[in-house]
Design a protein that fits this description.
- The chain is mostly helical.
- The chain contains four helices and no strands.
- It is rod-shaped.
Length: about 200
């Protein structure tokens, strides 16, 4: 009977090695090491996600500054439109000679304002394009980090489940080995094997 118990114990180890999802190298220590690596990577990703969130807040502030700049740009544009309307009213058509110099001065000021508005508009377009591109990249990175974190959590949960199954298997294996008859051992091992699939 002593040999039979040893044989049953050996069969239990064999069953353990052939359990789906396990390989010969996946003993509890290997699984714990994998779990530790997953947890460490999750911590690293959490730190990266925090940095990503801080970058999002910076982008939001930058969008606010862009909005404020846009309001100033619009206001300056309205000043230009008002000056242009005044120029067209005061300096349109035939002019007395005394008005030539003031109208030329006003036109030069309007031209300078237009040039400034044009350069301002170009800066705003580049600013917004750069900010939009940076935000798209940040969003893409956030999605990648989120997907990787989800995958790691699922992997960690699978490892925990595997460790739990190993613990239950070993406990049940010991219970089977303690039975007295070959038939009882056979039924116990069969139940155990079917429960691992």
């Amino acid at each position: 009977m002593g040999r039979l118990v040893k044989l049953v114990g050996a069969v239990g180890v064999c069953l353990l090695c052939s359990t789906p999802g396990l390989s010969h190298s996946q003993n509890p220590q290997d699984l714990l090491d994998q779990l530790g690596q997953s947890v460490q990577e999750i911590k690293t990703i959490d730190a990266q996600m925090q940095a990503n969130l801080e970058l999002k807040q910076q982008h939001e502030k930058e969008y606010e500054r862009l909005q404020e700049d846009g309001e100033q740009y619009e206001q300056y544009g309205e000043e230009y439109d008002s000056g242009k309307a005044h120029f067209e009213s005061a300096c349109g058509g035939p002019l007395p000679e005394a008005q030539y110099d003031p109208c030329n001065q006003e036109k030069a000021e309007l031209d300078a304002m237009w040039e400034e508005l044009d350069q301002w508009r170009s800066r705003r377009i580049s600013w917004k394009e750069d900010l939009d591109r940076a935000e798209r990249e940040r969003v893409g990175e956030a999605k990648r980090l989120g997907a990787r974190r989800k995958s790691l959590v699922e992997q960690a949960n699978r490892i925990l489940a595997e460790l739990q199954r190993l613990r239950q298997f070993r406990r049940a294996n010991q219970e089977c080995a303690g039975l007295q008859s070959l038939e009882e051992i056979h039924h116990c091992m069969r139940r155990l094997w079917e429960g691992t699939r």
